[in-house]
Design goal:
Layout (H helix, E strand, L loop, with lengths): L5 H4 L3 H23 L2 H12 L1 H13 L1 H19 L12 H27 L8 H23 L3 H31 L4 H29 L1 H5 L6 H4 L1 H4 L3
Helix pairs in contact: 2-5, 2-8, 3-4, 5-6, 6-7, 7-8, 8-9
This protein binds protoporphyrin IX containing FE.
Length: about 240
């Protein structure tokens, strides 16, 4: 029998490619910041976000080095746990690692979001209004994660997966945000301060919309439903899916 599992594993290769691209993008962004010499970081940041951003924000980041490092390491952990959803050998819900990685993912997610919100408040490059999208999408991410945990405890696996997909897409929206930043600053000649405000809405917002469309498409696709993994079949039969 074909061993496939979960909504994402049955999805189109285009979606998986997109997710892989986001994951590599997040790892790239984080490692760049952690490992490259300052002069190279400056050149990359200036190319993406403009001269003003690199000149003002990079020294601020250096002054809040610990906060930034905690945020980036948590984001890296979050990203690696998200990558776990792509590795077939981990897909079985009975795998002992699944539960553990699920909780570790939660710890990283909360640390990443809280440090992200604090950074947006303490280093407000685009003013305090910049805190708003960070709070909204950050809390949405944590909300999706908590709902997914509750669903897992109730053995409602499909709802569990749907909410994990939402949480992962919102978190990785930050990679898309960097691309928006490049386009807004370099192609539309937007001021860096204005662009940095908008990218937090655009990055996670676009990704949440994509996640939502993917979820609806997967749920309406009967061929994909038939292909669900052996481990999931008992839980996804109509009988076991009835609400208690
Ligand atoms: C996997 C996801 C994430 C990664 C890889 C990541 C990585 C980074 C990195 C490397 C920086 C510092 C340098 C730069 O701006 O490039 C940064 C800054 C920042 N991050 Fe994240 N982050 C992620 C998720 C989040 C989330 C979910 C939030 C909000 C709740 C957030 C909020 C921020 C803020 C506000 C800044 C400062 C940006 C600025 O002032 O220009 N990040 N992040």
């Amino acid at each position: 029998m074909k061993r496939t599992n979960g909504l994402l594993s049955n999805s189109s290769s285009l979606l998986r490619l997109y997710l892989i691209a986001l994951i590599f993008g997040a790892i790239f962004i984080s490692l760049n910041y952690l490992l490259l010499p300052e002069v190279d970081i400056y050149a990359i940041v200036r190319a993406f976000a403009g001269e003003e951003y690199a000149r003002i924000q990079l020294p601020e980041f250096r002054m809040h080095h610990i906060l930034l490092t905690v945020h980036i390491l948590a984001s890296l952990g979050f990203t690696l746990c998200a990558a776990y959803t792509l590795i077939p050998m981990f897909w079985s819900l009975r795998s002992p690692g699944h539960k553990l990685i699920g909780y570790v993912f939660g710890i990283f997610a909360v640390t990443m979001v809280m440090s992200g919100i604090i950074i947006s408040y303490r280093l407000p490059f685009s003013g305090l209004r910049g805190v708003v999208p960070n709070v909204i999408f950050g809390l949405a991410l944590i909300w999706f994660y908590l709902v997914a945990v509750i669903h897992a405890r109730e053995r409602r696996w499909r709802e569990h997966q749907v909410n994990i997909i939402r949480a992962v897409f919102v978190g990785l929206g930050i990679v898309l945000a960097r691309l928006y930043l490049y386009v807004l600053v370099n192609i539309f000649s937007m001021q860096s301060r204005e662009a940095v405000y908008w990218i937090f809405w655009l990055g996670s917002g676009t990704n949440l919309l994509i996640a939502q469309m993917v979820i609806i498409w997967l749920q309406n696709n009967s061929r994909l439903k038939r292909n669900l993994a052996p481990t999931l079949v008992p839980y996804l039969s109509k009988k076991s899916f009835k609400r208690k």
